[in-house]
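During the reporting period, our protein records have gained a structure token line. One record among many is quoted in full directly below:
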Amino acid sequence: MPNLGLTFTKVAHSAPPHAWFGVSAIFHYLGPSFAVLLFPAVGVLGVAWMRIASAAVIFAPWTKPWRTIKRADPRTRFMLISLGGCLAIMNTSFYLALDRLPMSLVAAMEFVGTISVALYGLRTARNFAALALAALGVFLLIDVKWSTDPLGLFWAFLNSALFVGYIILGHKISEGGASGGVERLGAAMAIAFFFIMPIGFVQAAKAFATPVLVLAGVAVGACSSVIPYVCDQLAMSRLPRASFALMLALLPATATLLGLMVLAQIPSGQDMIGVLLVMSGVAIHKPAAPEAPIPKLASTAP
């Protein structure tokens, strides 16, 4: 069997980190676009369960999560549990928001949190301006039409907060390099499956008798939680957190475009202005200076 670490190291360096981010950006919202189409047949929680379950199954033979968890030190194990819980709740709240709100709005709200963190760590006029632009953009996207759906907005804000956690924890697990990051990602996904098991199993079980729905659920998991998260690790392992955060400015536009192409969610002129304002806010915000290097996480290689 080929060495996983060597394989992923070669893959990570086979293309510029920005290219891996570009692939991630496409699949980050392509998978959820397909997931929305499954909501009527499987249910929102059922689709979330199928997404995480299928991703955990796909990762298992690659990354051997049981070995990673067993050999991890207490600090790493706590981080894996935190990331697993974050992934489970974030993906579920994301789908619950998409069931009630357009994808462009949910995507835009994801990135207000990243700017708020930057503002907390570095209070500058530049960051205040970035937050103001992003907040104005989200305000335009919410408009009167969606402000009457407080539950949908609650799920969107919860997803936004957890997205910040995903970025922070994702960078932490990538500190050992692309191979170590992917191994830990597989372990975190297995843990996420245990978190979501009791939440969406009843809805998902109804689809087990229909092979087409099961295959569609597996495809959603691969497109939503395998391809983009692996590409994130390949990019994060070679990019500073500040650079990665800057590139997030592309994602609201990606979500709007895929929402138009797959879900026929046609944005209005006001929506486009809102998306552009959020992108501008993410692009100009300045994260805090990188922290002093910390020891690498314990290796999980054999």
Notes: The chain is about 80% helix and 0% strand.
